[in-house]
Amino acid sequence: MTSTRDTSLQSDIGKMKLEPDGSFNRLPSSFRNWIQKDGQFTAERDRYHLYVSLACPWATRTLITRKLKGLEDIIPVTVVSPHMGEFGWPFASVDPFPGANPDPLYNAQHIRDLYLKVNPHYDAKFTVPVLWDKKLHTIVNNESSEIIRIFNTAFNDLIPPDKASIDIYPEQHRKEIDAINEWVYDTVNNGVYKAGFAGAQEPYEKAVYAIFESLDRLEKMLTGKDYLVGDTLTEADIRLFVTIVRFDPVYVGHFKCNLRTIRNGYPALHTWLRKLYWNNDAFRSSTDFEHIKVHYYWSQTKVNPTRIVAVGPTPDIEPL
Predict the structure, then answer these.
(1) Tens digit of each residue's pLDDT (9 = 90 or more) over 75-90
(2) Chain segment 156-185, per-residue pLDDT in tens
(3) Closest to 188 measured CA to CA, from 162, 161, 213
(4) Are the beta carbons of 144 and 62 closer than 8 angstroms?
(5) CA 256/CA 269 separation, integer angstroms
(6) With contact defined as beta carbons under 8 Å apart, do 283 and 241 qualify?
(7) Is there a contact between 240 and 60 (Cβ–Cβ < 8 Å)?
(8) CA 153/CA 155 separation, integer angstroms
(9) How far is CA 73 from each of CA 22, 45, 66, 107, 169, rounded to the nearest angstrom?
(10) How far is CA 189 from CA 56, 61, 82, 245, 246, in A?
(11) Does the active-site annotation cover 257?
């Protein structure tokens, strides 16, 4: 089912285009449907399939939430190889990397094949995560911030009460969560990419200083606390975790975010990170440092043309 159309500008990160001033601008996701009662997409057991990369922080958000909500038997998952090359994210059938899977639904070779199955003229990026509908053979949603909210509530009638009661976006905290998400996304989650993909000194420095201003702010917020909002785990923690757990292993060196490390520069943030990782299997089981480091150092050839994968830091994450 592989297309012969040249889609390299959509799939090959080595051909990524920057703004005229050398800055990186992330484009919005394309599929933004929701699973809801009486809608086109309704909550059903084994109707949907989740495609992810263990390397990708955006995709890992959905894995964490899927695990927290106990959706493993309701929404199967397929993991792609971290070797993102000319055709984008490959399945294990063409790149049998440890921990990667073949596509069980269509024997697709790359994630792009799924997008082109939905729309042969699709002209945006071939990203993960992908929440796929097996009944209608289409993409429901490819925006991670929306998928985690879908997982938070849409399947509550199909899971045990203890899992249904877990709410990562509680009504009483939504205003605060939304406010934190907004600046954390801009300056931290996407900020590391703005620094790492910058093609000129000025946009790089602007992004880096913004990252560390926000890390300083987060350090103060987390001093003496286990969670960002109230005294409960929320999506604000999930969205921040996926960036912070990658910070020392890849963003410090590969993306030149090297004013400070998390482990040596931010004691409260470092404790928060390790508690989530070591005390909650949803976070630990969704984090694969080999996939993470291989993807960033191997795939992003504009940043690292030698494809040499850094061996440090040791350990990838420190014990509690």
Answers:
(1) 999 999 999 999 999 9
(2) 999 999 999 999 999 999 999 999 999 999
(3) 213
(4) yes
(5) 20
(6) yes
(7) no
(8) 6
(9) 45, 8, 10, 21, 23
(10) 11, 12, 19, 11, 10
(11) no
Q: What is the pLDDT of residue 20?
A: 80
Q: Indicate if 204 belongs to the active site.
A: no
- Enumerate residues 6+ apart whose C-beta is below 8 A from 312: 249, 253
Least reliable range by pLDDT among 12-21, 26-35, 200-209: 12-21
Q: Residue 126 annotated as binding?
A: yes
H-helix or E-strand containing 48?
strand 48-52
| CA distance linking residue 23 with residue 18, whole number of Å | 6
Angle at which helices 57-68 and 144-153 cross, to 10°: 0
- The answer to whether 243 and 189 are in contact (CB under 8 A) is yes
223 known member of a binding site: no
Q: Is 188 annotated as belonging to a binding site? A: no
DSSP per-residue codes, 99-136? T----TTT--SBHHHHHHHH-TT--S---S-EEEETTT
Kind and range of the H or E element at 274?
helix 267-279
CB hemisphere CA count around 199 (13 angstroms): 13
Asked whether 147 and 129 are in contact (CB, 8 A), the reply is yes
Catalytic residue among 48, 115, 122, 193: 193
Ligand-binding annotation for 125, yes or no, is yes
